[in-house]
Structure formats: C-alpha cells, structure tokens
Amino acid sequence: MRAGRGTALPLAALAVGVAALPLLGSVFADTVMALAGLFAIVAVGLNLLFGYAGKISFGHNAFMAMGAYASGILTTGAGLPPLGALVAGAAGTGLVAFLLGAPILRLRGHYLAMATLALGEITIIVSTRWTEVTGGLTGIPGVPDFQVLGVAFDTKTKLYYLIWAVALGGLGLRPRAPRPRRPRGGGGGPGGAGRPLPRPGLRAERGVRGGGRGALRALPELRERNLLRPAGDGRIDGDARGRRDRHPLGADRRGGAAHVGLAEPRPLRRL
C-alpha cells in the first residue's frame, strides 16, 4: 500500500475539520460524524474490492455485523478485554471472508452481485432471529467501554477521535498494481466470446440463482414484479441483440460476440 498522489491536501483539510468539529459542542454532530467514520472504514475495504479489483459486493454489511457480534459476544460471554475481542473478531471475520470468497469471487457480473446480496440478507435474518446469541433487535447488553493500554474511551468524544484516527489512517492509500485474474463463469469479453461455460461455473451459477431468489423471498414488493434476466456480460447499457437471441450465455450466435443485453422481463414466480 502507498499514499496516492494529490490526496495529501484533501486529507489534511479533512483532518482539520474532523478535529475541530467537537469544539462546537454538538452531541448530535459528534454522533453522526462518528458513524460516518465507521462507514468510511468500511468504504475503504469496499473500494479495495470494487474500485481496484472490479468485484461488485453487496455483502459488506454481513462482515461488519460478524465483527461487531463477535467482539460483543467475546467481551460479555468469554470475558475477553475489548481490544483482544476486537482483534479476535476481526481475525475470525477475515477467516470467514476468505472461506466464502474462495468460491464467490470466481463468479462475475450479475451472479457475483446476487451471491453477495444473498450473503447480506442471510446475515440480517440470522442476526435478528437468533436472539439467544445476538440479542435480536435489542442487541447485546453490557458491552464494556473500549480500552487501549489502560485508556478508556468512555465518552462519545473520545470514541469520535479514535474512530476518525483509524479512518484517516486508511484513506488515501492505494495498493500496488493488483494483478487481475481471469474470472470463472464468464461467457464474454475479449478473447472469450463464444466459449462454453465450464461445468463448475455452471453449477455455481445455479447455486447463486437459488441463493438470490431465497434472499428476495423476504421482500413482498418484489414477488409480483418482473426481474430482468441477464444475458451475458461486457456492456452496461445492454444491447438489443442480446434481447433477441436468448442464448444461455448471452452470446449473439450470428455475430459471435457476447453482449450484456438484458433480456425481456419474465414474471417472477412465487417462491
């Protein structure tokens, strides 16, 4: 990781504004900006995945929830100190992300988005229904104040500065030339037009479609609406040829090239 060019001045201005905000004495502003700092930390990881690697993810809320619940359970149930619980929760969440990312990141386009969406929806359902462990909608009570080297962050102002210190430490950094790999399960793109989908990728596609439908089952407003059936990958605006030729891979057989073309809507059957 290295600092990006042209980011020093904006980051310095942001740091000055963040440092001066608590001087206004507004508890509401401190609370809102503390939450903004938390989401900024999450956005740095999302930018690494989406901005540099080009992978669409709608499941970052799942990993954020896993880390939060793990640290809360370890402090209240196992009696670990807050810093140790935070490290253990982050490490456990990273391990889960590694195990889940091994098959999910082999997908691309619409299928990857559906898989991460299903992961986020499943996490929401588990965290709200498994009340014996997560506390349901009320959360985990009795979580102690965060401490580092004997310093307790027991006020909103202290937590505000801690959160933004971590957030500003990750902003403005960029990885050194990540090398993209050719994804599995794709049917288009340069050099890949007209190639059949590998068998493992075909099985993954079916699994992701099932997971996406399961995630949408809890949304009653989508049951009677139409969904767009993806027909390939490669363009964002779609293509009429993709709508005419509904090849399983979205390829235009006459032209020999794959297009994103979104096929005509099909009614979503009751799940």
Distance between the amino and carboxyl termini: 45 Å
Report the average pLDDT across residues.
67
Q: Compute the number of structural domains.
A: 2
Largest sheet: 2 strands, antiparallel
How would you spell out the order of helices and strands?
A: EHHHHHHEEHEHEHEEE
Low-confidence stretches: 182-271
Helix fraction, binned, reads 40-55%
Give the number of DSSP strands.
8
Oligomer: single chain
Structural class: mainly alpha
Radius of gyration: 22 Å
Tell me the strand order in the biggest sheet.
1-4
Into which percentage range does the β-strand content fall?
Answer: 5-15%
The coarse overall form would be globular
Question: Count of DSSP helices?
Answer: 9
What would a concise description of this structure say?
52% of the residues lie in helices and 7% in strands. The protein is mainly α.
Overview of the structural elements:
With 271 residues, the protein is mostly helical. It folds into 2 domains: 2-174, no CATH class; 228-271, no CATH class. It is 52% helix and 7% strand. Strands 1-4 form a two-stranded antiparallel ribbon. The protein starts with a strand and ends with a strand.
